[in-house]
Design brief:
Distance between the termini: 24 Å
Shape: globular
Number of domains: 1
Strand order of the largest sheet: 1-2-8-5
CATH superfamily: SET domain
CATH architecture: Beta Complex
Structural class: alpha+beta
Largest sheet: 4 strands, mixed
CATH topology: Beta-clip-like
Helix content: 25-40%
CATH class: Mainly Beta
Oligomer: single chain
Number of strands: 8
Number of helices: 5
Length: 149
C-alpha cells in the first residue's frame, strides 16, 4: 500500500473524499513576484511544485497561504513519506513551505500531508500547534467527509 493511502487510512478518509476536499478550496492565487518554484506535470500525481533553483535545508521556499489566500504551492504540492519540505506557520496564520533538506533545481518539492494537516488546522483555528493532535484533525476530517458524501 502506498504511504498516501496509509495516511488517508490514519485520518479515516477515502481517496474520493480527499479529492473532494481539494476541490472545495478556492482556485489558488498567484505566486509572489519572482517565484523560486513552478507548477508542471508530476510523476507522483497530477501536477506538482518544482524547484527553479536549489534550496538548502531550512530555507524558505515559497508561501503556501497568505492573508487567507492559497498559492499554487498550497494546491499542487504532492505527498511523500520522505518529504523534502514542510509547512510552517508564521504571523496571522500565514503558511510557508520550508526545505527539510537540500533540494536540487528541477526536483519536485513534496511534503507529508500528516504534518501539513496539523499545521493547517492550527492555522485555521488559532489553536497552538503544540496542542493539535492527529485525533483532533481526524475527527474534524471525518465529520467533513460525512457532510460532503
Amino acid at each position: 500500500m502506498s504511504d498516501y493511502l496509509a495516511m488517508l487510512g490514519e485520518f479515516g478518509l477515502t481517496e474520493s473524499a480527499m479529492r473532494a476536499f481539494a476541490s472545495l478550496s478556492d482556485e489558488p492565487g498567484e505566486f509572489p513576484s519572482r517565484p523560486k518554484v513552478y507548477v508542471r506535470a508530476s510523476p507522483i500525481d497530477g501536477r506538482g511544485i518544482f524547484a527553479l533553483c536549489g534550496f538548502v535545508a531550512g530555507e524558505l521556499i515559497t508561501p503556501v497561504r497568505v492573508g487567507g489566500k492559497m498559492t499554487p504551492a498550497g494546491r499542487y504540492t504532492n505527498h511523500a513519506k520522505d518529504a523534502n519540505a514542510e509547512y510552517r506557520m508564521y504571523s496571522r496564520g500565514n503558511l510557508y513551505m520550508i526545505a527539510l533538506r537540500d533540494i536540487d533545481a528541477c526536483e519536485e518539492i513534496t511534503n507529508d500531508y500528516r504534518v501539513n494537516a496539523l499545521v493547517e488546522y492550527a492555522s485555521a483555528t488559532g489553536v497552538p500547534l503544540a496542542q493539535v493532535t492527529t485525533e483532533t484533525v481526524r475527527s474534524v476530517m471525518q465529520c467533513a467527509q460525512r457532510r460532503i458524501s
